[in-house]
Amino acid sequence: MSDWRVRHQSSLDEARYNVRIFFKDKLAVIGLAIIVFTIVVAIIGPWIAPYPAQGRGDSNLTERLQAPSARHLLGTDNYGRDVLSRVIYGARIPLIISFVVTAAIVLIGVPIGGIAGYFGGRLDEVVMRICDVFLAFPSLILAIVFVAFLGPSIRNAMIAIVISWWPWYTRLVRGMAVSLRERPYVEAAKTMGVGDFHIIARHILPNSFGPVIVQMTLDIGTVILAAAGLSFIGLGAQPPVADWGLMISEGRAYILDQWWIGAFAGLAILILVLAFNLVGDGLRDVLDPRSKR
After folding, report:
1. In the chain, helix, strand, coil percent, each to 5?
2. pTM beyond cutoff 0.90
């Protein structure tokens, strides 16, 4: 272990320095705390929800459309379900969708961008023109088209978002690969006979991770908004699943009188998306060399 520490001491020192820089940003720390809190709530939701059965979708028509009270802190919806329990259960879907979708986008877009940027030529031209076709349309509109074709469901909504967004990461990493392929250490690796794909995996992609990580953190919030939007128009989560976007859709018919049905779900989306943006800003300050003193 001591030999390992000696070999990686510089990396460990840099990591500790980056952590200190991050935690000096109070807004980023607040955002991280909100994210951790939401994840914990999503995990232990069945044990802390006041009415677990209603959180899972069971109706209780005898208590429908009740205003917030001591019995139902956030009121009840048009099916008599406790809104607080629904909000707690609804935390799972946006977190799962955002993490899985973002990871899938990175796994698809980053290697393609690295390969296209490193080799250049006709391969690069073909990949960029394919990206241009996808980027010519707004991502959400493209996702709506794909999920409408595949059929409304959470899984299809995730697939549609991945198909619509991977070109953004491909273009980001391609631009960095074009710059990195001319660096001396890459030229040295070529001179030593190291294979092209080994160079991409060991030198090009690892040195592109800084901007990718920042973009991932910012995009997680955008994915949450996109998934909620698809659920709102009936192309994502389907009743009686507890989903924040679906809750807003169900509450729009009662927005003037029973505002609480969708308001608290919308507030949850706002806070979580803001938290990811705050963390993304904090990571950008850490990973951007120009921000370091």
Report:
1. 80, 0, 20
2. no
